[in-house]
Design a protein that fits this description.
By secondary structure, this protein is an alpha+beta fold. It has 31 helices and 27 strands.
């Protein structure tokens, strides 16, 4: 029985139909119940107010390790991994994360399986087993996770920031843990890690330190009864929440300039101040106000000036790494090479802008504008997945009073200039820490961070030095932003008569095709517009593809100063290159959408190459291509798989070779040619009438296809591009061994891809059902039992309507050829489980997949993405989910077994497979052996990607001739 029921009025969005109730169980567990009769998924998040800051000295990573261990087994459910197996088999997912002061566990599951899933989850916090065997294996998993992070600049620089704080403050700690901190070190001191783990659990996992969110389909009374029954046995030892008062930085940690060497190419400045935590004043929003102004990108802003000078490519400002006790305000600037040479000038300009804010005073009209944007954003927020929702709310519960659990700090409402001024006054030269990252510092540093091996040096700086930088900075005119013209004020829903379920082809011509889908489900004042410019000249060579990429980046660059306000106001846009041209996407409040869209279209039509910006974009792109080799090995393996399979894919190495030689004149010549032949595909959805959608098309076609000298002419039937995929040979196991691009990375990776069929409802559901049934057993065997590596995934793959299955494994313990053998061994052992499956188990899995397919889309963006994928691939199966459900209902167990025997079984003469084997530095000798291997029977090595690609047949494309397709 709850001791506190419904005693608080929880603020929720005006459009939110869900019901909420706060209860407190007798063991002091505080719970938020959420009833949503429309949901297909139930979800739960338990937030425990204990994190890595509570790790005992010499056992770094223990809190994170405990998070891993609770998933294994409990006294009530002793079969290892049965929790994750149950969740996966019932359409759900599960995960957890550890932060400095919190550990959050969460899952979702099909709504009708909620009770048992909840019971299994509750046992995490009642009587987990933490067996000795599992303990040792999972230490290896934590170590593998850490290995994955060792060459990540984000992890390295975050730890360096912590390292240069007070050693006695818990923020200084290494939070992830590894083999040394959890096995070698404790053993050397005579400690048993498992016993320390159990002790840590018993001392810290107390009900009064936990906050639970439960999201279900039933009414609040039923959910409450379920929660009371499942969670009442969690022990309450009345522990106090861990708090370490005071900032992590003493005087000696301030006024420092840290030069650090990153792994990747690029230059970055991070200017950081310890400040009063904004959480204490969340209704006043001081950091939101200051972050909005310092991070602004419109005319007169700091970023606008830095961009104009050619010194920066991005700037972000705001609060980060905060708790109730301490916080940091950060300004992060990505520098060009020229900006690197002017880093001190940039710091000077930043302080000039801060002094401008000091001089201007806190402005009520700016605060009021932010309030208007935040209120609209909160009350008209998209509904999103229950699992993300519960994690977000559970994370808020320790920090905010119950009435603000849903809103948190997203809705400032009290204009208190003194509070904003207080934080602004902390952004001073004598309170600053500056971190400057560049490969150019290689060889000139004298220290090494112990956990990740980052090379760095520290210089003390003084207020006088910073004042000199301020004085020497360019005399540019900085000013506050103008009022935001993009704030939506008309939020009325339009009277749309078309009650269609699927997109309709509203208009079709030789130059374009318009798909229209009015909003008949979500009823928000938002729209989604996508225009695909299909331009054959954009991808006929590596050079053309690179020039197209530079064009779209320049376009975004040109628009930024004007359109930044639109994004602030909740009207988002993106311009991206595609394999057949480029696309423009605008999504958000429909009120001011036409203003933004017309500006984008005009920029495309009137595009001129600005030489200075061309070379900035070119420099950025060169660095990105150079940094490709620092991708995780599994990402490299996936890239090589796509390069082999996609008929028109160009290698990054060719593009990197071409880039340095490109000049602004090359783009100026290329662009008219690229746009000269085009076919435009429109998708318009949401709070927009049909005649408005047609007006949009007429306007765009008037700009591009009409007039005495039209920019574009329509494509002829022979010019339409088709996306075609290599058809692998049956009965042959192709493999492609290659060295990892960064041999200092010890991780190797495997992508074992099994190609099955071209889009077909019946075959699709057989593949999907097999993947559902095999996913968790594969993870358990290859990750939990064999401990091959932290990244171990079995998932479906869809390349332009060509379906298949892929195992993805990243490992330091075995080379990719051995990993491939382990995948084959798993498939061999899984045969018997499939053959022995009972009819009831089969039916249960079928019903789970049906439930997953019938899960309703949550918002306009999600719905639009689904339909746009059908249009882009050319499959146009808008009723895909309903048709696949119908196919599932007719499916038999024998048909699934036959599918396995035909397409997946190792010895099948119809099996089509490809193994991409990326060998890390630890396995370089094995790579040489693999490249010389004479091959096992039916295994064929690929030595040259392009010779192989040219020699293979291709699947037919669904896309065919856009605009000439029979519907």
């Amino acid at each position: 029985m709850a001791v506190g029921v419904g005693d608080v009025q929880i603020l929720k969005p005006r459009t939110d139909k869900r019901e909420y109730r706060r209860i407190v169980l007798p063991n002091a567990l505080e719970v938020l119940l959420i009833s949503d009769p429309e949901t297909d998924k139930a979800a739960v998040s338990m937030d425990v107010s204990v994190g890595s800051c509570s790790d005992p000295e010499g056992l770094e990573g223990l809190a994170h390790f405990l998070e891993h261990m609770l998933f294994y087994a409990s006294e009530k459910y002793p079969i290892e991994d049965s929790y994750s197996k149950y969740i996966t088999e019932h359409g759900g997912s599960t995960n957890a994360f550890t932060s400095s002061e919190h550990t959050n566990y969460y899952f979702d599951v099909n709504a009708d399986c909620f009770s048992e899933a909840l019971d299994r989850f509750a046992q995490f916090f009642i009587k987990p087993l933490m067996s000795p065997d599992a303990t040792l294996r999972e230490i290896k998993a934590v170590d593998s996770e850490n290995q994955k992070n060792l060459l990540s600049d984000a992890w390295r620089m975050s730890q360096l920031h912590k390292h240069l704080c007070a050693t006695g403050h818990p923020y200084h700690k290494f939070s992830t843990g590894n083999w040394d901190t959890l096995e070698v070190g404790p053993k050397a001191r005579g400690l048993d890690t498992r016993q320390e783990l159990i002790k840590f659990y018993e001392e810290n996992y107390s009900a009064n330190l936990m906050h639970l969110v439960v999201y279900g389909k039933d009414g609040l009374d039923d959910i409450q009864s379920l929660v009371e029954h499942k969670f009442q046995e969690i022990q309450n030892s009345n522990k106090r929440c861990f708090h370490f008062s005071g900032q992590p930085c003493g005087v000696e940690h301030l006024q420092i300039l840290v030069k650090a060497v990153p792994i990747k190419q690029g230059n970055k400045l991070k200017i950081i101040w310890p400040i009063t935590p904004g959480i204490r004043y969340y209704k006043e929003g001081p950091c939101r106000y200051l972050g909005h102004l310092i991070g602004h990108e419109g005319n007169g802003s700091l970023f606008c000036i830095l961009k104009r000078l050619g010194w920066a490519t991005s700037l972000a400002a705001g609060e980060g790494d905060w708790t109730y006790e301490f916080s940091f305000f950060k300004v992060v600037i990505d520098l060009t090479d020229a900006g690197h040479e002017h880093a001190r000038d940039i710091i000077g300009l930043l302080f000039k802008y801060i002094f401008l804010l000091q001089k201007s005073g806190v402005k009520q009209w700016i605060f009021d504008e932010l309030v208007a944007i935040c209120e609209t954003g909160f009350h008209y927020q998209d509904k999103f997945s229950p699992i993300d929702y519960v994690v977000n709310v559970a994370s808020n519960m320790q920090l905010y009073p119950p009435e603000d659990w849903l809103v948190a700090s997203s809705l400032p409402c009290k204009f208190t200039p003194e509070t904003i001024q207080m934080v602004l006054d902390e952004l001073t030269p004598n309170n600053v820490r500056i971190f400057w990252e560049s490969k150019k510092f290689e060889g000139s540093t004298n220290m090494v961070e112990p956990w990740y091996g980052t090379a760095y040096s520290v210089e003390k700086i003084t207020t006088d030095m910073i004042q000199q930088w301020i004085n020497a900075a360019p005399d540019e005119i900085l000013h506050l932003p103008q009022p935001n013209i993009f704030i939506a004020t008309d939020l009325q829903l339009k009277d749309i008569h078309e009650k269609v379920k699927f997109p309709v082809l509203l208009r079709k011509s030789s130059s374009s095709r318009l798909w229209y889908k009015p909003d008949t489900r979500f009823f928000t004042p938002k729209a989604y517009i996508k225009i695909d410019f299909n331009c054959p000249h954009s991808s006929y060579s590596s050079e053309a593809e690179v020039l197209t990429e530079i064009f779209v980046r320049l376009l975004m660059d040109y628009l930024n100063e004007y359109a930044y306000d639109a994004q602030v106001a909740g009207l988002y846009y993106g311009i991206n290159n595609t394999d057949s041209g480029f696309q423009v996407i605008v999504v958000g409040y429909n009120h001011k959408m036409w203003v933004l869209l017309e500006t984008i279209v005009a920029k495309v039509a009137q595009f001129e190459v600005q030489r200075d910006r061309f070379y900035v974009i070119k420099e950025t792109l060169i660095k990105e291509y150079q940094n490709f080799k620092f991708q995780q090995p599994y990402q490299q393996a996936m890239y090589h798989c796509s390069l082999i399979l996609e008929d028109h894919a160009w290698p990054w190495s060719e593009q990197l070779e071409i880039l340095p030689h490109l000049e602004a004149e090359d783009l100026a010549k290329f662009l008219p040619k690229m746009l000269s032949n085009a076919f435009l595909e429109y998708y318009v959805a949401g709070n927009i009438k049909a005649d408005e959608a047609e007006s949009l098309v007429q306007h765009v076609e008037g700009v591009f296809f009409e007039g005495p000298k039209p920019i574009c002419r329509p494509l002829s039937p022979s010019e339409h591009l088709a996306n075609r995929i290599v058809k692998l040979e049956r009965g042959i196991n192709f493999f492609y061994p290659i060295e990892g691009l960064n041999q200092s990375d010890e991780n190797s990776a495997l992508v074992h891809y099994i190609q099955s069929h071209q889009d077909d409802f019946k075959l699709n559901v057989k593949l999907q059902l097999f993947a559902l049934i095999a996913k968790q057993p594969a993870f358990h065997q290859l990750r939990s039992v064999e401990q091959l590596g932290y990244i171990t995934v079995l998932m479906r793959r869809n390349d332009s309507g060509i379906h298949g299955l892929q195992f993805i494994i990243q490992s330091t313990v075995k080379d990719p050829a051995q990993l491939d053998l382990r995948v084959e061994a798993f498939l061999k052992s899984f045969e018997s489980k499939l053959y022995e499956m009972s009819s009831s188990e089969f039916k249960s899995n079928v019903n789970t997949l049906i439930d997953m397919k019938l899960e309703k889309q949550k918002n306009l963006r999600e719905e639009s993405s689904f339909f746009c994928r059908e249009i882009y691939d050319g499959t146009l199966k808008f009723d895909r989910r309903e048709s696949e459900v119908a196919a599932l209902r007719d499916l038999t167990l024998q048909e699934l077994i036959d599918f396995f025997n035909d397409y997946i079984k190792l010895e099948s003469p119809r099996r089509q497979s490809l193994s991409i084997q990326v060998f890390g530095g630890q396995h370089s000798d094995q790579c040489k052996a693999a490249k010389c291997e004479t091959s096992r029977p039916q295994h064929v090595r690929i030595d040259d990607v392009f010779s192989f690609r040219r020699s293979r047949p291709l699947y037919g494309s669904f896309r065919g001739g856009l605009g000439h397709m029979k519907l």
